[in-house]
Amino acid sequence: MSVAAIVGGEWRRYVQALVGAIPGASGSWLRAAYWRRHFRHLGSRCFIDTGLRVAGLENIEIGDAFSCMHNCFFTADEGGSIRIGRQVALNINVLIAASEGGRVVMGDNVLVGPHVVLRASSHRFDDRSTPIRNQGHTGGEIEIGEDVWLAAHVTVLGNVRIGRGAIVAAGAVVTRDVGAYSIVGGVPARVIGERGAHE
C-alpha cells in the first residue's frame, strides 16, 4: 500500500473522529450531513449521536427517521452489507457486524436496546491444525422484520430470521429463527410467550 493511500485513510479516520465528537443538536446535524455523503444511502430526519464508527460505509443503506445513540459500530467491509429500514432506533453501544461476506437487513420500526450484537458472519474452525484466527470467516445473513424489539444485551448470530413483531428478551442469544409476534428469551433463545396471547 502506498504512503498516499495510508495517509488518505488516516485522514478520513481523523475527520470521522472529529465529526463524531461534536456534541448537541448541531453535532447530530453535522454527522448526518457527513454520513449522508459517504453511506450508500442515509435518509432524512436522522439523529446520530457521538462516537459512531463505521467500516465499509459504501455498503450501508439507512432509511428515514433513523436514530442512533452514542458509541455504535457498523462493519460492512470485505463483501458485507447492511440495510436498515425507516424509523429504526438504536440505543448505546450497538454492534452491527456484516463484514466478510455477511448481510444484515432490518425492517421498519425496529427498536434495538443497549449493548446489542448482530453478528452475521462467523469464524471458520473446522481445521484443527490451523489456528481459528487464520481460517477466515463464513458469511451469513440476519434478517429482522418490521416492528421488532431487541432488548438490552441481546446477541443475534448469523443465518437467523426474526419475524415481524417479535420481541427478544434482555440477554437472549438468538441462534435460530424467531416466528412473527413471538416473545423469546434465554440462552439459546426459546419461545416464552406470544404478543397479544393474553387478550
The CATH architecture assignment turns out to be: 3 Solenoid
CATH level 1 name: Mainly Beta
Structural class: alpha/beta
Q: Please indicate the percent range of residues in DSSP E strands (runs of 2 or more).
A: 25-35%
The share of residues in helices is: 10-25%
**Extended strand count:** 22
Model regions low in confidence, pLDDT < 50 over at least 5 residues: none
Question: Which value, in Å, is the CA radius of gyration?
Answer: 18 Å
- Continuous helix count: 2
Largest sheet: 8 strands, mixed
Walkthrough of the structure:
The protein is an alpha/beta fold and 199 residues long. The protein has a single domain (3-194), classed as Hexapeptide repeat proteins (UDP N-Acetylglucosamine Acyltransferase, domain 1, 3 Solenoid), CATH 2.160.10.10. The protein contains 2 helices and 22 strands. The protein has helices at residues 3-21, 24-38, and strands at residues 41-42, 47-48, 53-55, 60-62, 67-68, 73-75, 81-84, 89-90, 95-97, 103-106, 111-112, 117-119, 122-123, 137-138, 141-144, 149-150, 155-157, 160-162, 167-168, 173-174, 182-185, 190-194. An 8-stranded mixed beta sheet has the order 2-5-8-11-16-19-21-22. A 6-stranded parallel beta sheet has the order 1-4-7-10-15-18, with helices on one face. β21 (182-185) and β22 form a beta hairpin. α1 packs antiparallel against α2. The radius of gyration is 18 Å and the shape is globular.
